[in-house]
Every structure is written in C-alpha cells, then in structure tokens.
Amino acid sequence: MMRLADSFIIFIARLALAVLFLWGGAMKLLGYAGFISYLQTKGVPYVHIAAPIAVAVELLGGIALVIGARTRIVGLLLAGYVIVTAIFGHDFWNIADVALQHDAVVHFWKNVAIAGGLLLLAVTGAGRASIDGMRAPRGGLRG
Where are the transmembrane segments (predicted)? Predict the structure, then answer.
C-alpha cells in the first residue's frame, strides 16, 4: 500500500518531468520551421515525419504525466524518446570545439538522468493523485 506522502512526492516528480516536455513541445510547435531546420542539421532521417511525432510525443506525453494516465507505459516511452534525442541532439562525439563539446556532454548526461527518472516513474506508477490511481483497486495501488 502506498503512503499519501509517497503519492504526493510522485505527483511532484510527474509535474517536474512534465514541464520539460510541455515546454519543449510548445517551443518546437511555436518555432516549427526552426525546429525542422535544426533536425536537418543534425541529420535526422525523415524530418517531415519525425518533427510532428516529436511535438506530439512531448505534448501528449507531458499531459499524460500531469494527469497520471498510463504512467508506466508513458514513462517507458518517454525514457526511450529522451535517449534517442540525446543521441541525435547532443552528439558530443561529433563536436570538435571544446566549449561546444562540453555543453553537449552536459546536455547528453542530463537526458540520461531524465530517462532514469522516467524509468523510476515507470516502476513506481503514478501514485494516488492520478487517473491511474483512481482506476486502481483500493486494496493496494499498482498503477
């Protein structure tokens, strides 16, 4: 059985992670042409397919985290997404300039840390303060 304090902490964690995706998705959508150009410079294949998928994953994933819907699977999917974006977007191994490379290394490992938080969320579930929590049987929260 999950304690109320645990559910509150999980709720705060969900919100903290969601802000990243909601903000990123909104900025990509608002600067869509620039986002397309950025993806092209990074050599992302099928940019005109990848870009709307990225925006949708970030916005819908962020919303799912906030409301706590399908949190375990959303956590797994977003963790995978964050690792893929780290590999394509923060490819420090391809950067010659030392200052730019350092910046990319920091961002790469931040993405790995975010993926770790999402994997923890996939294991713990959404907690009581969520749609998943409302669906769970009252004997013990599994969602």
Answer: 7-26, 46-67, 74-93, 113-131
